[in-house]
Specification:
- The complex is a heterodimer of chains A (174) and B (764).
- Chain A is of the alpha+beta class and 174 residues long.
- Chain A has helices at residues 13-26, 33-42, 95-109, 124-131, 166-173; strands at 3-7, 47-52, 61-72, 76-86, 114-120, 136-141, 151-157.
- Chain A has a seven-stranded mixed β-sheet, with helices on both faces.
- Chain A is globular and about 55 Å long.
- Chain B has 764 residues and is mainly α.
- A two-stranded antiparallel sheet of chain B has the order 1-2.
- Chain B is globular, with a radius of gyration of 32 Å.
- Classes of the chains: A alpha+beta (174), B mainly alpha (764).
- Chains A and B meet through helix 2, strand 4, helix 3, strand 5 and strand 6 of A and helix 3, helix 18 and helix 23 of B.
- The complex binds coenzyme A.
- Coenzyme A binds at residues 26-27, 84-86, 91-97, 119, 123-126, 128-129, 132 of chain A.
- Chain A: This is N-acetyltransferase domain-containing protein.
Chain lengths: 174, 764
């Protein structure tokens, strides 16, 4: 098996459908097509897919990460990882970690000061994964998901701006 | 995983005509729209969409971000409520028909509906389920609310021709709808958070607001109970129904707690006794008629939430007991006899247990009255003044009777009032929200400290007489600065320790957090000692002076009134210091514990330093972000932290001897903490009578006891863990022990979650 990673092709319906399938299969949160479109159409370069190019289905993604990057509180550029999933057959091989690293590099080079995400408090796989990349839990949010599950918000600070209070940064900008 | 906005409140009913007709019972097919009423636009749609690029976004002005991301997707089973499958019995369920062939069947049906409806309410409120998946799944509630729009002013909605439905079930339904308007009003106060505390989407069916006549419903319930208790029903199986009706009857009075600030808890007691009774005697073999609980409302009403399957309530009335007990506790605050009791109430009300959201909201609306009065006893100035006096200002120059002092403090009083009421509100939130809010207020306390210090500096320059000996000038004490500093310190400690409770910190972060808490607790101890000094000096001053001042009777009276207050304060301070000492000693213990594991190379506070994207300094600063802007944090840089933490690491020659010393130190810390905890527990148990401490926990005795008993358990567990660790580790630091061991934070039941156990585990 040989895994390669590349950005999503927005015009490729097969890719989009497989991405939906991967995510719908395991994430508890039900996303409508509009949610996918919200991320993918605005930040296609931050949607990365993994392919097994030695498999029969080498054009079908076996893992994906969907992210965005926006200015937060007029103070810092915040990268955000919205969704991440890897096909069951390919788990525990470091694919998710590679996808996350690639996305982080992209967001970092794109000027992000921090990267944020949320995950269910009992999703130990995801928590281990993100924490092994240096994310820390900054808050717990009760009943954050539609299934009433609690979430942790995790942040990876990349620059000084990530650790300054927004209002202080805004005052400095003024 | 991206979380979405759960739903948006629709302010006005927006039914289409067919829906409305169905809702009014004028058509019997809810599966709107019907095929022959539709015009097929597929070909137009396809033609237009074929010209579009995948990147194109079709968006209208009315469609903002939330609608855009949350728009429901047709045919998506998780999102499209119009695709909810319904059984025939649900579609054709008729609320205006008496279900059940015989009287006995009808009694059973009505009892089962009423029972399930009641338990659905607690499933909704206690277990945080959605409204449509619980209460609104009851067809009688839906029917009642719909009919209310067209029949405002009446509550006789059910017209089946059968007494069990038209009188008894109808009244129960009215009671629930009345209660809904109360819950809705609570929700509108924004005390509770929609997503976190209470999920109330009535799907535009808000006619419960039209039900304003509590007395009418109360009377009907009373009459119903009377009828059912009459000899005519003696041989009928209505005992359960009567019990249930008692709960419905109490339900409508919960509102009185905030509308009339009623302190009457009789009906809450009734809920408890009746629920207890029902738990024992209720006949669970009864089932409601098929179709009487359904997802049909989600399908047919104005709904932009995803599909929520019905949550079957459990076969128990314990939910009602929990709700009633929490409400009773919330209003017991009115019995507080002093600000200390009031503040301790706030401190322990939700400390070890998440309280029922309604009880938290009721507490806030109950203690702070519309006229600005606190529990019907104190006005703003009096409240703040009493808090100060119970802490540090008694017999000092901070005497609000003095015009000059009052004028200079009036702004400070306002700010302190805001800070204290904010603190009360913050602590009353659910635990996750509470920590966030407490954190946001640290800077405010820091500002208040500066502000009080400035005013006190100014007052010192004024010719203020000493409050005890008016012949002298007031001495330079800082009672207000010390009060605000003590509040700031305890807020920081609380904020930091609650991070453990919420499991926010990873094992590698523990050392920084526990060292930080111990550091602030040391500062806090100094502050409390300062206050103690003021109080003792005032006490002594009075004792020495009373003889000389007997000449003026008024003075003697004043001085004598100071003495008991000062004695109280000293006793209270003793408690505060003991409490603070327990937290300090346990934090020191934890820091040492981490230090030992770090000395063996098993864990490191900077262990992420090798990771590609990580700066340990940035992680540290992110963790302490809420504290940025406070004066003391300017000194506590990342580098300073590292220096302090390294003092806890054992290295160099004579490792074992040094280790033994550290272990001794740790055991001493635990022993110290144990003494203080025991003393606090003793005082709580004795109601502060004949004790050395004043805990002020009379109203929250169980809650306070459970907190300190958890701490007591933690002390034992931490001690045991230390023993386990010391025997598991080799005598000398050799080899890469990180390959063999790892550290996990363990949260044992019955122990204090602020001090999880740093457990050493062998890698598989
Ligand atoms: C979470 C998920 C994306 C991980 O994918 P993966 O490719 O198997 O992960 P990796 O192989 O890259 O694992 C990297 C690290 O994550 C952690 N991890 C991954 N799966 C884990 C599991 N089942 N249990 C515990 N830790 C796990 C481990 O620390 C792992 O490192 P290690 O293998 O060296 O111990 C995958 O399990 C998944 O798709 N889950 C369902 C969707 C989901 O939960 N997404 C995250 C929502 S925010």
């Amino acid at each position: 098996m040989k895994i390669t990673y590349r950005a999503l092709d927005l015009n490729n319906d097969v890719q989009l459908n497989k991405v939906k399938q991967l995510i719908d299969a395991d994430l508890s949160e039900p996303y409508s097509i509009y949610v996918y479109r919200y991320f993918l159409n605005q930040w296609p370069e931050l949607a990365l897919l993994a392919f097994d190019i030695e498999s029969e289905d080498k054009e079908t993604p076996i893992g994906c990460i969907i992210s965005k990057s926006e200015c937060h509180a007029a103070a810092r550029e915040r990268g955000y990882i919205g969704m991440l999933a890897v096909d069951h057959k390919y788990r525990r091989m470091g694919i998710a970690k590679n996808l996350a690293k690639l996305a982080i590099v992209k967001m970092k080079t794109g000027g992000c000061d921090e990267i944020m995400l949320e995950t269910e408090v009992d999703n130990f796989a995801a928590l281990n994964l993100y924490e092994s990349l240096g994310f820390i839990r900054v808050k717990r949010m009760y009943k954050y998901y539609l299934n009433h599950g609690d979430a942790y918000r995790l942040i990876l600070p990349l620059t000084e701006k990530a650790v300054q209070k927004s209002y202080i940064l805004n005052e400095e900008l003024r | 995983m991206y979380g979405q906005v759960k739903y948006q409140r629709i302010e006005h009913p927006r039914y289409n005509l067919d829906e409305k007709l169905y809702l009014l019972g004028l058509t019997d097919d809810p599966s709107w729209p019907k095929d022959d009423e539709l015009y097929d636009i597929t070909h137009i749609f396809k033609a237009l969409s074929s010209q579009m690029d995948a990147k194109d976004i079709v968006k209208t002005k009315e469609c903002g971000f939330y609608e855009f991301t949350h728009a429901l997707e047709v045919n998506n089973k998780k999102l499209d409520t119009s695709s909810i499958p319904l059984k025939q019995e649900e579609i054709h369920f008729d609320c205006n028909k008496p279900h059940g062939e015989t009287e006995e069947e009808r009694i059973n049906f009505v009892t089962a509906i009423a029972s399930r409806l009641l338990r659905s309410i607690t499933t909704w409120l206690n277990d945080h389920q959605t409204f449509p998946a619980t209460v609104l799944s009851c067809r009688y509630i839906e029917h009642f609310l719909i009919q209310l729009y067209s029949l405002p002013g009446t509550i006789d909605i059910l017209k089946t021709g059968d007494e069990y439905y038209d009188t008894f079930l109808n009244t129960c339904t009215a009671s629930v709808c009345y209660f809904l308007s109360f819950v809705s009003n609570i929700q509108e106060t924004s005390i509770l958070y929609e997503d976190e505390d209470l999920s109330f989407d009535p799907m535009a069916l808000d006619s419960f607001h039209l039900l304003r006549n509590q007395a009418v419903i109360a009377k009907k319930l009373e009459d119903s109970i009377k009828i059912l208790s009459s000899p005519q029903y003696l041989n009928k199986n209505v005992k359960d129904l009567i019990n249930l009706m008692h709960i419905f009857s109490s339900l409508i009075h919960i509102e009185d707690l905030v509308s009339k600030y009623s302190e009457d808890s009789e009906y809450l007691d009734k809920i408890i006794t009746v629920s207890d009774d029902l738990n024992v005697s209720y006949d669970w073999s009864r089932m409601p008629p098929n179709g009487s609980f359904s997802m049909i409302a989600q399908k047919t009403l104005s709904n932009n939430s995803p599909v929520h399957s019905i949550v079957e309530p459990v076969n128990s009335f314990n939910g009602w007991i929990d709700l009633a007990k929490d409400l009773k506790l919330a209003i017991s605050v009115s019995q507080s006899k002093s600000p200390i009791e009031f503040l301790q109430f706030v401190n322990f009300f939700t400390r070890t247990q998440e309280r029922h959201p309604l009880s938290r909201a009721v507490f806030l609306l109950f203690y702070s009255r519309k006229n600005g009065n606190i529990i019907g006893k104190y006005g703003k100035n009096e409240f703040v003044d009493k808090i100060w006096r119970e802490f540090s200002t008694t017999a000092t120059a901070i005497d609000l009777q003095n015009e000059l002092v009052f004028q200079n403090l009036s702004l400070v009083i306002d700010h302190c009032y805001t800070a204290v009421t904010e603190w009360i509100r913050n602590l009353t939130n659910n635990h996750a929200r509470a920590r966030r809010c407490i954190g946001s207020r640290i800077e405010m306390w820091s500002d208040i400290e500066t502000q009080t210090h400035t005013v006190e500096q100014y007052l010192h320059k004024q010719p203020l007489p000493d409050n005890i000996d008016s012949a002298k000038k007031a001495s330079h004490l800082w009672p207000l600065t010390l009060w605000s500093r003590a509040m700031k310190n305890s807020t920081i400690i609380d904020y930091s320790l609650r991070g453990f409770e919420l499991e926010l910190y990873q094992p590698f972060e523990c050392m920084e957090m526990t060292w930080f808490v111990s550091h602030i607790a040391s500062e806090s101890d100094e502050t409390l000692r300062e206050v103690e000094k003021i109080l003792n000096s005032k006490f002594n001053q009075i004792s020495e002076l009373t003889g000389q001042l007997l000449k003026t009777k008024q003075n003697v009276k004043k001085l004598n009134s100071y003495k008991p207050q000062l004695a109280r304060n000293i006793k209270y301070l003793k408690y505060l210091r003991a409490h603070n000492n327990v937290l300090r000693k346990l934090s020191i213990f934890q820091t040492y514990q981490f230090g030992i594991l770090k000395s063996y190379g098993i864990i490191d506070n900077n262990e992420l330093k090798e990771l590609p994207f990580v700066s340990c300094e940035l992680l540290h600063n992110l963790r302490f972000k809420k504290l940025i802007g406070t004066k003391f944090m300017k000194k506590l840089t990342y580098a300073a932290f590292q220096k302090f933490l390294n003092q806890y690491v054992i290295n160099g020659p004579e490792f074992q001897e040094k280790l033994q010393k550290v272990v001794e130190e740790m055991k001493l810390a635990l022993a110290d903490a144990r003494i203080d905890v025991k003393e606090i527990i003793h005082s709580i148990n004795k109601g502060d009578e004949d004790t050395s401490m004043l805990t002020g926990t009379r109203l929250v005795k169980d809650e306070a006891l459970s907190f300190y008993e958890e701490l007591e358990n933690s002390i034992e567990l931490l001690g045991n863990n230390l023993d386990t660790i010391t025997v598991s580790l080799p005598e000398t630091v050799s080899g890469d022990l990180k390959q063999k061991f790892f550290v996990k934070l363990r949260y044992d039941k019955g122990s204090c979650p602020y001090f999880p156990i740093l457990t050493l585990l062998e890698k598989q």
